[in-house]
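BUG: 3D viewer hangs when loading the predicted structure for this chain

Environment: internal workstation, default settings.
Expected: structure renders.
Actual: progress bar stalls at 90%.

Input used:
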Amino acid sequence: MRILTYLSPSALETWLKDPNEYYIRYLAEAHPERPPQSEPMSVGAAFDAYIKSKLYYHINGKYDDFSFEKLFEKQVEPQNRDFAREAGLVCLNAYEQSGILSSLLLIMADTLSEPKFETEVQGLISGEAGSVPLLGKPDMSFTRKYEVDKIVRIVLDWKVNGYCGTRNISPKKGYIMCLDGWDHSKAKPSRSHSSMHKDCMPIGFGGVPINGACPFEDNTPDWANQLSTYGWLTGVKVGEPFISIVHQLACDGRVAPPLVRIADHRGKISYDYQVELFKKYVKCWSIVTNESAIGGLVDAPRLEKIAKQYAGDENKMFSEMTRTL
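Structure tokens produced before the viewer hung:
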């Protein structure tokens, strides 16, 4: 059994879903290799490179290690680069056209320190339930000043959904604003353009309008798990209020290139949800780092054999998709 050095949101999700799958992916000595980056994943990675490079230059007047080409080559695998370069630019143009970029820059205007554009952050996080080493990949975080002497941490993540699909992806519930990313002289407005979701009630927090109708996790628990982890890794104490923002690029794959709507999701992840999520991390860590404990939950010798079989399979992608445990 391999020795782990951290947990991540995706690792915890796998553990909660299926401990057998977790063992093969993370603990088996001969674990299967990661499948190649898919085209949909490459679109998100390319857009990420475009937008981070643009924002970094806006703030600093130079690119340093955040030039588009450096980020693009680091994040997009070679087999996808021709496609992703064009697709990512379509998404960036939509993001700017919608006006959401201007809105973000207004929120960033009162930052106390330079925003951090992370690719990977690792740290030992402590709370009442214990301590656990975590790793996350927050897109951007910064501390904003409001009123006279108050500050709030903001963690933002970008999501690109449906660019390679064949249908019109609907934004997730609860957005505070949805904006079309296209010229309405060329395509008619969507029904959601310049509107707030019916389940959203805006309130002010930290000088920023957020959805006060319900906590962030009620509509998007998977995003709440990610952003809670990113918040802790960027300085938020477990349970402490901070602003979670997700800019979701929801694509209509029925046309080429896809039309892109941008849904602005903003909210707070509740104290209780953060505490319970952290307890799950701590419990998971206590089991997966203890050979006796993990052996009481899964048939480790059998899973080691399965892992060795897939590690030696030339068609690892096929194995990854068709494996049954």
